[in-house]
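hey m, so remember when u said the tokens were messed up on ur end? i reran from scratch. heres the input so u can diff it against urs
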Amino acid sequence: MKKIMCIISVLMLSGGFYSGSAMAENAVVGDINGDGIFNSSDLNLVSDYVLGKIQFSENQYYSADINGDGRVDSFDLVAMRKELTVADAELPTGKYIGKSEKGIRRYNFFEGGGNYVDSSTGIGSAFAWEINGNNVTLHIGSADNTTNAVIEWTDENHFNLIWENGIIEKFSPESAELPTGKYISESEKGVRYYNFFEGGGNYVDSSTGIGSAFTWEINGNNVIVHIGSADNTTNAVIEWTDENNFNLIWEDGTVEKFSPTRVEVINGITYIDGILIANKSYGLRADYNPMGLTAETQKAFNEMSAAAEKDGLCLCVYSGFRSYSYQQQIYNNYVSAYGKETADTFSARAGHSEHQTGMAIDVNCADDSFEGTPEALWLAENSWKYGFIIRYPKGKQHITGYKYEPWHIRYLGKETAGKVYRSRLTLEEYLGIDSIYR
């Protein structure tokens, strides 16, 4: 059954009269194209006739005279539209996603009833429904809990329910297409950046910088992915968790969780919202080397140091830029002295240190003796004014991956540093990312 609501403009134009003696015995009212079915294709033919675009045979003319007044005109169009609306206005069967200003609900429709679940709360209900033309009456939970809506099909797969309180809920099959745009994914295998477009896309692995182009086909919730070539094929099930986020459950059991992001990977370096990221989840190439603190970072620090000096305090660079090889040496020394588990709480592995970015500074010293000093207090209160944040705040080790370091500051620029400072969030929380070695 073709579920389409046909919306037309009523044009007050007149056609000619037909000759009753010429009509054929097998002519059927409404079946203009002679396929034995009265549907929207027949309505389109009548519309073209009324507009003067086509001519009808006498059989077609008889079939198009819906109201039986001997003329084919706009009144017949109206009559056909009413007949089709009543005939086609039925709720679907199967799984659909409904979206409205109140959120997202997942529906399962079957003949005369169904059930739904709210995506944000997990709460839902069974319901029964009755339909009369475009008017839908739903009994949610019980016959006493009744609400009404008007159903409006926008194409053969999508429809709206216009509820009696005015809310419009837009429905699409739950076997929705893969998204378009940039997404970040996380799984036990690490973090990958995807760029989806119609029927294909590409991805890059965050830790290696290696990726591939792919094409995909979708059938219901089943996704067939051709990575690199048609011969390299793998399968997954797509599962939408809300309007913007979804999972791909791969055939080997891996669950890859996707969320939209403004991520760019440029020459193997990750930028999120334009901010270069180096933490336990996002690494830098071994050959990434700005050859010292960036000019902008050094200038901002000099400005901050001069302001602190006016307040009778001294701020100096204890440790600034570190190369990949130097960080590897430092980390290995700590592992030898304290063990890997302890070293990971305060020292970054090579390729994961912010110092390699040229935008991180350890101020005055790099040990717990700095905590509580006038310089540490001044830095915590004022560094954002010059474009820096305290990168590893107290009580946030489970988020940043590192113990409290009141001496470690990161340059973000004055505007962004101010936003992060006022949010009282770590950089990970602010950007919605994690910091976990995988």
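this time it looks ok to me. The two ends are 51 Å apart (CA to CA). if urs says something different then somethings off w ur setup not the seq
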